[in-house]
Amino acid sequence: MDADRPLDPHTPDPAPIAGADRAQITQAVDATGVEWPYELTAFFEQINGFPHENWVALLPAYELFDLERLVEERQMELDTWGELDEEMGGAPAGGNSAGETAFTYLPGFIPFGGGWTPAVTDGKLNWQCRP
Question: Of the ranges 4-8, 65-69, 72-76, 102-106, which one carries the lowest mean pLDDT score?
């Protein structure tokens, strides 16, 4: 028996977990135009995404986005909420400081994961980069 394999022979091999390099992180930070806190860059140095097919117990109802997907998801949210705000007559009068309800998707929100289970469909995990 291989010591690195689980006891159940039907369990798939674990997917590798790899972080992003400094250049990839800098490119994503530049694409968002938002200053990222140290904790967010440190997070991506350790793990640059983890798709739901490769289930991981860290956040089992969510997949973790890689940096490319983070930038795409963020832009999609900004575009969608921007259209909704426009239809409603402008951006809602929500707070621009951390801890205040925004009532919209703000540029200071950085999505790093999303729900994929029926109970958490389209739920995003956002890092709040508001002051």
Answer: 4-8
Pairing state between β 109-115 and 62-64: antiparallel
SS3 label, residue 111:
strand
What pLDDT score was predicted for residue 8? 59
Structure-derived torsion over alpha carbons of residues 56, 60, 61, 64, reported in degrees to the nearest 10: -40
pTM: 0.78
- Report CA-CA distances (Å) from 32 to 7, 59, 116: 44, 24, 24
Is residue 20 within 8 A of residue 67, CB to CB? The reply is yes
Following CA atoms 59, 63, 66, 70 in sequence, which dihedral angle do they give, to the nearest 10 degrees?
Answer: -100
CA pair distance 47, 70, nearest whole angstrom? 13
Q: Give residue 9's pLDDT.
A: 63
How many residues in the chain? 131
Instruction: Tell me the DSSP string of 3-28.
Output: TTS-S-TTSPPPPP--PPPHHHHHHH
Tokens of 109: 């929100």
